[in-house]
Amino acid sequence: MKKHRRIILAHGSGGKLSHDLIKEVFLKHFANPTLNKLDDAAVVSLSSIAHRLLQGEEASDKVRFAFTTDSYVVSPLFFPGGDIGKLSVCGTVNDLSMMGAKPLFLSASFIIEEGFQISELERILSSMRKAAEEAKVTIIAGDTKVVDKGSADGMFISTTGVGFIPGGVEISGSNARPGDKVIVSGTIGDHGIAILSQREGLRFSIRLRSDCAPLNELVEDMLEASKEIHCLRDPTRGGIASALNEIATKSNVGIRIYEEAIPIHDAVRAACEMLGLDPFHLANEGKLVAIVGHSDAEKILEKMRGNRYGVDAAVIGEVVEEHKGRVVLKTIFGASRLLDMLVGDLLPRIC
Amino acid sequence: MKKHRRIILAHGSGGKLSHDLIKEVFLKHFANPTLNKLDDAAVVSLSSIAHRLLQGEEASDKVRFAFTTDSYVVSPLFFPGGDIGKLSVCGTVNDLSMMGAKPLFLSASFIIEEGFQISELERILSSMRKAAEEAKVTIIAGDTKVVDKGSADGMFISTTGVGFIPGGVEISGSNARPGDKVIVSGTIGDHGIAILSQREGLRFSIRLRSDCAPLNELVEDMLEASKEIHCLRDPTRGGIASALNEIATKSNVGIRIYEEAIPIHDAVRAACEMLGLDPFHLANEGKLVAIVGHSDAEKILEKMRGNRYGVDAAVIGEVVEEHKGRVVLKTIFGASRLLDMLVGDLLPRIC
What we know:
32% helix
């Protein structure tokens, strides 16, 4: 194709330039036999799924699929530790993982503002490819729309994922039981502060990076250690406070967590104090919160710490009979305070 | 929740207002047992799929799934014959149908501009629900992001669909063979002209409506008449010219079509003449182009005409050995002209 350096409206026309863009830019990064067909829908056979994942298990009534979608509107598009492309793959992989599913396929749909630099598009596609490779997931369907200058802010990406849930895995936000332990996989608030500092041009003595990462292998490791994993949540928008409140409500239990047990970078703590933010409401993109049977908690924790995305994992609290539907934080000073769901918006366009 | 009349940024925060919006607005329209769980991913068992669709067929190696995604950025959001909601369901249902798949599930992801009227959101959700009901497809996963005023134009929707392809169905853009007949399911260009007239405030003596419709039942009817359906395409962006060019290229055949055989509303023809547009490049959202075995063409056509979305169906041409990879139009005056893929952009944000 005539080499364009920027996206023009005709790249979204469905005609020749759309085809050129798909073949010469998108397929350069995402080529695979299923996507390359460029039919109206990608076709996958159950036997190809079985070949990849079931490993001898019969395709039976026990076979369940997980299905999830997210749009990504993060601003800025590039930030320390990632970009919108990496985020759009990791976020959807993580939503599948939070159901105990092994991610199989993704679709990716792009809304691009006229005038967008093709070199930046390629950077984003390249980091999507890397994240997909790490998560061992294939992008098999896609779409691109171009809108006129001023009708979108650079680029938005929507990804949808299909995953396979192995037999015996029963994870849901409503499965928490009194006595269960609450685990967080690492430091909280890194993504929120990384975006904020990039957006507002803040500088801290320690450079903060987003924790954006695919967590499917961490979840696989955990499930290998024990099937007593009752709930999993990735605390993105709304932070661990919102994730834990959701679980408390759905399971109709109380949750008690201990401030001193919660891993947090000094720089995030300092930024929160300076800016008056609550780290429990800050977004994370490479962390999970797990509610697990108390007798297996140590075994699960040990396994998590052996994974690169779980080295700072810690038990931070427990599920209790009292204050059903509520999350209570025991502060370092011994006081108790109610940890509410985020009300209002802390940081728009965090993911 | 406190009754909001407009979307505010906190509706996208992941916190309390997000939850209220989902429960009180989205679930009002889309409630179903799978979606209601509001977990990170929707879970469906193969047996529930079998129960719905396989009707006794074994879940075997022959089971194939179709997977497709699209973003919708149409402007204006409401137009004669539909709106962005109806379009986002029909478009994805149709992409699945074009592979011969029966649509099973959809996900829907919304990017909404701050300040958007909740009453308009509800109108859009309501028409999504109606379209989904007509297509017998369930929306089981979703996401909502809110961006600050000026960062998006009202609303964009991304839908992703999963469908089931019955055994014996082999439809692909590369299956056209010389001798095959080319069928179009009805009048061309209605959607393109309806959007254009709404956008530009043009008035014609006859009111033009978009043809936006779910075509899965039409395709089921066709497959009931014959399995000799080789290619199906919904000629959206880029029109029937781009759809036929894609098929000619993929199948490495020539395609010849006859102008006089192509159904077109007088008003669309008049608008095209007035505005210098080529109806073959105009978008359709409720039409399909089919390449079928010549001996079954009449049988398929008859069946199509019995469906409300196929009453004007017509054989418009044939697949030929000559001019491989190219589409030739025989004009009403007997001349031949090459029908090219759309170059440049005719109408941005047509879908």
